[in-house]
Amino acid sequence: MGKGNEKGRVEDAIKYLRTNFWPGRTFRDLADLNAQAQAWRDTLANQREHRVTRKIPALLVSEERPVLLPLGEPYDTDEVRSVVVPPNFRVAFDGNRYSVPWRLVGKPLTLRADAETVTLWYGSHRVARHARCWRRGLEIVLPAHADGLLATKPGAQVHWQVEAVQALGPAARQYLQLIQAGTRSLKAELDHLLLLTTLYGPVAVEAALAACLAQAIVGSHQVEQWLRLQDTPPLAPPPRTLADPRLTVPPVRPNLQRYDALLLAADSEEADGDAQS
To answer: Is the pTM here over 0.70, yes or no?
Structure first.
């Protein structure tokens, strides 16, 4: 945390922007506003003498740039929150609602938003990606997220879930026969298999079912475990978390010679003091 007497410096910078950059400013969108702000910073603000340092910021940046270290990992500034998918499969965020596949209703998701996109993740799998809307009160919906929903309405085919799983391939059809002959809940198995199809795709799920049958194993959670252990990449790179080892900052090796120099300087001062006394 900064010192109490430094708070005014931060507030003064905000005040400077409000009084010098914002008045009379118009822009098309966020990208246009950012471009204008950068141009104003480089051509005007950083060309002026700083009130505190009495130096020109642009000249200081030019002087320091050769010794600046490259950024190892981009700093993660995404907004991150946990959400539960409501019955209308539209997740509320920042005054708008963004759709996700309807089979995820009731599931916990991770929402990540930056200046341009809103993405939603089920575990390590991205299940939806939308362009971020900066207006309010809108629904941003992808039609594909409702695929298969009409089949679940009253009056539709009773065995639509069975048919959807059977359509995956021969392994899926054999798997369903074994489930129906056993004591497992058929509805729970169908729901989970269709969820896995949404996450991993039908080809991967059919391959997982075939692999489990080859080992005389049934159970949708076993199928999910097989999918997780495979090298099949998810739909997109998983969202980074604080536990992600890629975010670990490498330790900085101190230059111990700096401490030796301080000790030598202290000894020199002490010797001068003894000589004067």
So the answer is: no
